[in-house]
Amino acid sequence: MPSSCFKHSDRLPSITNWKSCPSASTGLRFLQMMAIKSVDCSLSAVILFVNLLPVIITLSYAQLGEEAHALLDIKQAVGLNSPYLTTWSSSSNGGPCGDNWAGVTCDSSQRIIIKLNMSGFNLEGVLPNHAFSKLTSLRSLDFFYNHLQSPFPSLDDLKNLHDLGMKTLQIGCKKSEV
Q1: pLDDT per residue as tens digits for the range 4-33
Q2: Most CB atoms within 10 A, among 96, 161, 173, 174?
């Protein structure tokens, strides 16, 4: 390489006339090709991510488990107007036990819901018939101070339930139009 290609200083050599230096121009072409490959690779990664996004969302919703789906059904039926249920979300990666959903207590070792305290959550409407069928590990269930309509769902699947709180629960009847 010609000595005129590099200017030496106390620190690092620098290229002074890169066009007359064959290795410098080759290096520049190499860097340009790498930059293009990097852009292509980044673009491919973005396209792959966009194509996989529906699968990722579906899998994260599926990973929530049956208990989370039961709670989301309850929210959909009677809690859409409740400011307390904003933490209940299908986009929650940790689910009710991992993301500390309001009113939900979990057995941390087994990651199962053992207590549901919805006292004063301003719940209104009719709970789904299957509301508690997937919450079979519940030990405690509280619905104090809410406005639910009958019929109240069966608690037959809750074999571990030993505390049921419904003090001042206003259970109204649905008006039927004849």
Answers
A1: 555 555 554 555 555 555 555 565 566 666
A2: 96
